[in-house]
Amino acid sequence: MPEVLQRKAEPAIRRPVASAAPVTRSLLAGWREGLCIVNLRGNAEDTAFRQAVESVLDAPLPVKPCTTGEGSAVRVLWAGPDDWFIVGPKGQADALATRLRKALAGQHHAVTDVSSGYTVLHLSGTPARDVLAQGCPLDLHPRAFARGACAGSHFFKAGVWLWQTDDAPEYELLVRRSFAGYVWLMLERATAECGLVTRRFA
In which residue ranges of the chain is pLDDT below 50? Predict the structure, then answer.
């Protein structure tokens, strides 16, 4: 169950306290700790490369800029013409990286487990778009940034990779672990009026 959040420093150690803002109007936010995050590099114009990757991921490899591919277990984020982030279930990074390297053997590629360096912040609720807009210069209007879109940007002074997972709206941000405390602090400040509710993920 979501809990209303305390406004203090470290996100992982904060304890919830009551907020005057109605929960239904508050931003729901939580860290999705421990997810598998793998960086993939390769030639998107090479059919063999795409087929090998997609056979492992069971998801389309996005080749259109600023889009995502979604499978039953993973989400693939376009990060550049030859660069992707793969976000998957907890504890699967080693297995996924091994399967990708095996499938891409003999091809020019790079597969790197970056799970320890990043974490994922999930945001949802009515004010999600407006709260993000306070610190992110992207045009987040549904006409410009809808479900399936992703982009590299920043949230206040922290670099993030952002994607939309639902029209509700719901967003997720790939955040360097060393900036997680700063991002949470700025999130608290940006939700002073609407309220912030912690969402805890198993």
Answer: 1-18
